[in-house]
Amino acid sequence: RKIILSMMLALTFLVVGLRSHQWLKEIEFPQKSRQVYATIAEYGSRLYNYQARLRMPKEQLELLKKESQTLENNFREILFLIEQIDVLKALLRDVKDGVSNQSWSTHGDPAGQQDTTEEMLNLVNYVLKKLREDQVQMADYALKSAGASIIEAGTSESYKNHKAKLYWHGIGFLNYEMPPDIILQPDVYPGKCWAFPGSQGHTLVKLARKIIPTAVTMEHISEKVSPSGNISSAPKEFSVYGIMKKCEGEETFLGQFIYNKTGTTVQTFKLQRAVSESLLCVKLKILSNWGHPEYTCLYRFRVHGTPSVHT
Fold first, then answer.
1. pLDDT digits (tens, 9 = 90+) for 164-195
2. How far is CA 102 from the centre of its chain?
3. In the chain, fewer beta carbons within 10 Å around the N or the C end?
């Protein structure tokens, strides 16, 4: 009897469970329950993404930090430009008020108004022309696009940065480094530089044509746009040598200089020794940097002078 009763109870519970399951399928969930489930799913997705970030390699996290710092610096530059635009607007407003006063003083003379407008246009064109011009105002015979190049045999090895890699689907497979001829190109922005290990190095530049060199220019980024907030990898003491014959042989000392990291980003140095013969190659030797223990970065190097008549 006990066995029969227990079996009947079990069958009764089974039938009731099947009917209730069918009834639950037919009934729709309330809207609040769906919202609760959607919220739980959203927080579950956030938790998964957070765990995925925790599982990231340290190198990728450092790259993300650098990218965020770069974005922050770009944002600061945009704010600075907006401030400058506001200043220009105020200046133009003052000029406009001055023109209005001038027009009132001419008692409605259209010729006077036209002269004032022409003067304003000439002033604006002059300012725009100065902004477009190069700061150095001297020809660069070490410019790559003009035909200059780097001679690898007379150049130090590049700094091997194992953190700077090319990634494919999150997997780093190739170390990435800037070539030495990056210092012969005009585009200067953070990270686009040639780095060599330590604080001493050299590079040999074949100029675009033979010249009698008179000055050199060293360019670096400022601390304001540096992602690290400092430019300790900038060159400090450096010397320049000229090579007479086919970029080989005896080196002629042209001068030794100091790049001031607190000065302007573009600094021109007049050579301390004059040469009578035309040179095709110039050697740059970096003697020290501003304190970085691992590497030194060069952004741009220019050579100025008088071109040879016979070339």
1. 544 444 444 445 578 999 999 998 889 889 99
2. 46
3. N
Q: Is the predicted pLDDT of residue 13 greater than 50, yes or no?
A: yes
Return the ∠ at Cα 257 (arms to 239 and 263), rounded to 5°.
135
How far is 238 from 259, CA to CA, in rounded Å? 8
CA distance 57 to 239: 42
Mean pLDDT, rounded, for 206-219: 95
38: CB partners within 8 A, 6+ apart: none
Span 49-87, pLDDT tens digits = 665 655 555 555 565 566 666 666 666 666 666 666 666
User: pTM to 2 decimals?
Assistant: 0.58
pLDDT at 270: 96
DSSP count for the chain of H helices, then E strands: 4, 11
Given a contact cutoff of 8 angstroms between Cβ atoms, the answer to whether 259 and 199 are in contact is: no
Helical pair 110-132 and 58-105, crossing angle rounded to 10 deg? 160
Tokens 């091997």 found at? 160
> 245 with 212: CB under 8 angstroms?
no
Using CA atoms, how far apart are residues 236 and 39, in angstroms rounded to an integer?
58
Q: In the numeric block, which tokens belong to residue 308? A: 């040879």
Beta bridge partners of 201: 286
The Cα–Cα gap between 280 and 243 comes to 7
Contact 219, 200 (CB under 8 A): no
Quote the CA–CA distance of 283 and 14 in Å, as a whole number: 93
